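A.,

Following up on our hallway conversation. Structure tokens first:
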């Protein structure tokens, strides 16, 4: 899921956000501050199967807890730690000019633990921010359709996200949001040389899960007028 940063800055403030990614994945998040500087978050994402060879089918959720600190009237810093679970089925085809196309299809179940920090510039009409998240994925199951179980029990990913929000109307309830980010793994690659003991083709397919992933979305954010916002 995207490491989105909620712009909650005082007690009893809340926000609810929904976004759509180019691959058809719908994501929704919510954040609330029940006490001063305390932040609670929840989120989920779903994506149906929209293709036959290139597709992503997923169901995920995550829960987080953390805090926030307003820096004057124009800046906000927050941090979160949390846990989530996911089920996904991913199929895609690479286009290689020499060897021809390579098709891969994976099924995965995993738990994740994450920690993130973010900073935002809060303006009269626009809000701009950056979030960094460190995520550890622990696979309970990761299989390739042809090769079966893959030798990748866990991976560590560094995820960065830039976002821009535009306040819509004069009430301050609604914002439009655009995001763009990158997720990159720092987990060492397995030895996927042909004939490597215990690995070979399975290691090659496992390593493809360590490739960088780009994400982008467009969405809306709703703020109830709690806490004087």
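Then the amino acids I'd put at each of the 229 positions:
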């Amino acid at each position: 899921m995207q490491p989105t940063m909620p712009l909650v800055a005082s007690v009893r403030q809340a926000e609810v956000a929904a976004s759509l990614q180019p691959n058809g994945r719908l994501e929704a998040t919510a954040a609330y501050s029940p006490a001063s500087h305390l932040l609670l978050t929840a989120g989920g994402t779903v994506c149906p199967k929209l293709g036959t060879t290139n597709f992503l089918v997923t169901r995920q959720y995550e829960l987080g807890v953390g805090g926030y600190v307003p820096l004057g009237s124009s800046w906000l810093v927050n941090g979160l730690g949390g846990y989530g679970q996911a089920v996904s089925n991913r199929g895609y085809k690479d286009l290689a000019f020499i060897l021809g196309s390579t098709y891969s299809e994976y099924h995965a179940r995993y738990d994740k633990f994450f920690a993130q920090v973010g900073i935002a510039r809060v303006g009269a009409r626009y809000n701009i921010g950056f979030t960094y998240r460190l995520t550890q994925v622990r696979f309970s199951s990761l299989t390739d359709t042809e090769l079966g179980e893959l030798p990748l029990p866990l991976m560590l990913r560094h995820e960065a996200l830039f976002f821009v929000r535009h306040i819509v109307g004069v009430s301050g309830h609604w914002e439009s949001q655009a995001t763009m980010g990158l997720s990159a793994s720092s987990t060492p690659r397995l030895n996927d040389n042909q004939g490597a003991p215990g690995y070979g083709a399975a290691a090659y397919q496992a390593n493809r899960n360590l490739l960088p992933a780009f994400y982008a979305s467009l969405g809306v954010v709703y703020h109830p007028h709690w806490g004087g916002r």
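The first strand starts at residue 14 and ends at 20. Curious whether your intuition agrees with the design.

B.
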